[in-house]
Amino acid sequence: MNYLRFFLLSTTLLLFACHSGKKRETADKPTKQTSIRHARGFTISSYPGYKVLEVHNPWDTTRLLNRYILVDKTKDLPDNLPDGVIVRTPVQKVAVCTAVHAGIWKQLGKADRIVAVCEPQFIDLPEVQKGLAAGKIANLGLATSIDIEKLIAATPDALVVSPFENTSYGRLEKSGIPVVEDASYMEDSPLGRAEWIKFEAAFTNEEALAETIFTKIEKRYTELCELAKKCKSRPTVFTEKKFGQVWYVPGGRSYIGTFLRDAGANYLWRDIPKSGSLPLAFEAVYEKAEKADFWLIKYNNPQQDLTYSLLQSEYELYKNFAAFRNQQVFAVNSAKSPFYEEGPMEPEVILADMVSIFHPELLPGHRAKYYFKMK
To answer: How many domains does the chain have?
Structure first.
């Protein structure tokens, strides 16, 4: 490790030592509670001199996953802060682990604050790709194995990660850089997931902007839900395709399952009480979905779009589905559209695509952004 990196590491460790440690639970009463209408995974409370962001454990809702104490960097730390990870705000430089988080910072008008990313090959935002090419944004490698030296050299004020069950951040926490766990992907409703823009905005003091953005999303999404209720029938639909020997089918309470219900479709696995996916054999999927009206697929191929001939070449038996024979397959190529970067923050656009697929008479002239009819 060269001298610069040693100096940075020593400095951040010292700062972490000064600002970490166990502190009491707050006995203060919040002066404001941020309105969270759909998301179930976090809360934001304001107190004199600081804010508290609590992230609930999505795998054990009786426990907290983490607590963040946000203090204005121009002010002294208040006395008797509660236990939690202290983050000085507004965050001026941030490292992100996923395309979704990068997309949120762009939507908040803060893409220029991204100084490091993981797995940049999956982030199609022009701002990020230009920053990487110019050497202004560091490539931290895999999200599961972050390059600590590059992270420290980038000197971000925070690192935003997607948490997984029983994950430890020991090595990252020792860097002195606050690890911010954004569990938005565990929300089972599209509006709940999109509302996490308020969580990220708290770190940049852009709560008012986040509320404005989300209110517009919420209004349009609700309008589309009401429009879909006017449908005369609910066509049957199934999703995705085999991955190796397994076909992962979203549960009825999943993010995708909620989308399909709100779009006026009859999702064939709607009765499975799971928010995650169910691993099935091809035969089990075929037995239930053979006569389904529609088939929706997500894939990533920068070279070419998926076609019926390519799909059949992947697995010959796909041709036996009625949706394949009737050419009612619609697909998202995430290599050519910002589905994972922008999609979670614009669920109303995804919903409009789906309503147009299942009930085109309800949205005449709709121009798709994500889901296109396969050729």
So the answer is: 2
